[in-house]
Design goal:
By secondary structure, the protein is α/β, with parallel strands linked by helices. The chain contains 3 helices and 8 strands, in the order βαβββαβαβββ. It has one domain: 2,3-Dihydroxybiphenyl 1,2-Dioxygenase, domain 1 (Roll). Helices cover 25% and strands 38% of the residues.
Length: 136
């Protein structure tokens, strides 16, 4: 198998949230992401990292009102199992965790050393766990 002649890159990833308006506020004001598109009346919220202006965007996909039942079930089951739905990275996990805790973010798992670096897990206040990692 070889390289495709016309390779693709990841452009957007969805994270299911209970309320895209609440999630947009949290992801921008607390986590520090930037607005790409925000149309609360249409339940559309897209954000991106301020570190990569042409990078992957994050669609805050609503499960309410009248959301897709299987999406709600998927989200609830992952949360009950404590499984993160997405991973974010940091160049200094200790400082990032401290800053987020100062903003009221609740961590399920404080930074711990792993084989690949450090890992922490926090609750996004929208029914998801998020992994935060720092590579060695």
């Amino acid at each position: 198998m070889g390289q495709n002649k016309h390779p693709m890159k990841i452009a957007m990833v969805s994270v299911f949230v209970e309320d895209p308006v609440k999630a947009f506020k949290y992801y921008t004001e607390v986590l520090g992401f930037e607005e790409v598109m925000y149309s609360p009346e249409n339940y559309i919220a897209i954000v991106k990292s301020p570190l990569d202006s042409n990078g992957v965007t994050l669609l805050l996909e609503p499960t309410e009102p009248g959301g897709i039942e299987i999406a709600k079930e998927y989200k609830q089951k992952l949360y009950a199992l404590g499984i993160p739905v997405i991973s974010f990275s940091s160049n200094n996990i200790q400082e990032t965790v401290y800053e987020l805790k100062e903003k009221g973010v609740i961590f399920k798992k404080d930074p711990v050393k792993t084989d690949y670096g450090y890992e922490a897990i926090f609750d996004d206040a929208n029914g998801n766990y998020i992994q935060l990692f720092q590579l060695n």
